């Protein structure tokens, strides 16, 4: 799972921030590790130097194998809160998307299983 982190000019993109974001994402999304190819993280300060409450935006986009990209947005007072909130949203979105993908596969396989069972019963008669 590749994680790319980008910031605007008002947020310092340093090793500490990169380590924090990667740690949060890897911990929260560890069970999806085999399905996710890449995660893009974009951090920006919507009000810039003016300040203001809840003005740090975190946009995350996950590339999931066999599925359309999944994007979420969180806006909060600090970088850490925004990253945490976006990570929670992304985890739920991926869980939901993969659940739908698995359900559609299960239904497709289930139809064949029902037909196979009916064929066996007809042959037994």
Automatic annotation (TrEMBL):
It comes from the Bacteria. InterPro entries: RHF-like, RHF/RaiA. Keywords: Ribonucleoprotein, Ribosomal protein. Residues 101-125 are annotated as: Disordered. One of its GO terms (cellular component) is ribosome. The keyword Ribosomal protein applies. This is Sigma 54 modulation protein / S30EA ribosomal protein. It comes from Janthinobacterium psychrotolerans.
């Amino acid at each position: 799972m590749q994680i790319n982190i980008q910031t605007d000019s008002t947020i310092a993109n340093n090793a500490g921030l990169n380590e924090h974001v990667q740690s949060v994402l890897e911990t929260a999304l560890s069970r999806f590790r085999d399905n996710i190819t890449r995660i893009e993280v974009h951090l920006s300060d919507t009000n810039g130097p003016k300040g203001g409450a809840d003005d740090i935006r975190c946009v995350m986009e996950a590339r999931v194998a066999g599925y359309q990209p999944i994007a979420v947005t969180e806006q909060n007072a600090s970088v850490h809160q925004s990253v945490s909130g976006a990570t929670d949203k992304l985890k739920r979105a991926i869980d939901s998307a993969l659940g739908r993908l698995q359900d559609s596969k299960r239904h497709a396989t289930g139809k064949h299983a029902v037909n196979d069972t009916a064929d066996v019963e007809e042959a037994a008669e």
